[in-house]
Amino acid sequence: MFKKIAIVATLSVLAGSAFAADEPKWYAGADVGTTKWDQHGAHENGVGAFLGYRINDTFALEGSARRLGEFASGANFSETVDQLSISGLASVPMGNGFKAFGRLGVNNMRISTESTGYPDGHRSKLFALYGAGVSYDFTPTVTGRVEVQKPSSNTTSISTGVAFKF
């Protein structure tokens, strides 16, 4: 009888520890969105990819690369804006798989200029990056999110994306 109780207790502990395993720490994803650049008064579509590491249930570090858009001013001038960023995310559970999160970091915006009759140019500048959003866990490994970011004082980006935890 003692052997049976010991076996059942051991199996219960092992099964419980299997269900208590930590969620994956790493995640990667992609997003699409629109960016408004006040300088041009236009909205342009963009795409991005990101890679993150969850430190704990509340904090994560994330790096991303985005094409914020291609802004044209007339037929002879256009600017392409790309963003590389690293930021910290803090999240708060809202229940039923939803979380609200905030972002604070730094990003490098690279602006490539093409112009008829003038040499093409590139310039880069560092800016503070901040934003806020909401995420929803569709499954334990798939999360959707919607976010608003301010990559610079005259730029606002709204995106929706999906992340895969691994």
Account of the 3D structure:
Strands 1-2-3-4-5-6-7-8 form an eight-stranded antiparallel beta barrel. The model is unreliable at 4-20 (pLDDT under 50). With 166 residues, it is mainly beta. It has a single domain (24-165), classed as Porin. It has one helix at residues 2-19, and strands at 26-37, 42-54, 59-72, 77-95, 98-115, 121-137, 142-152, 155-165. It starts with a helix and ends with a strand. β1 (26-37) and β2 (42-54) form a beta hairpin.
β-sheet strand percentage = over 45%
Count of individual beta strands: 8
* Shape designation: elongated
CATH topology term:
Porin
| CATH class membership | Mainly Beta
Cross-sheet strand order for the largest sheet: 1-2-3-4-5-6-7-8
Low-confidence regions:
4-20
**CATH architecture classification:** Beta Barrel
Oligomer: single chain
* Percent helix: 10-25%
Give Rg in angstroms: 22 Å
Termini separation comes to 43 Å
Structural class: mainly beta
In the residues, how many domains can be counted?
A: 1
Largest sheet: 8 strands, antiparallel, barrel
**How many helix segments?**
1
The helix/strand series, from N terminus to C terminus, equals HEEEEEEEE
Calculate the mean pLDDT score and round it: 87
List keywords for this structure.
elongated; mainly beta; eight-stranded antiparallel barrel; Porin; 166 residues; 69% strand; 11% helix
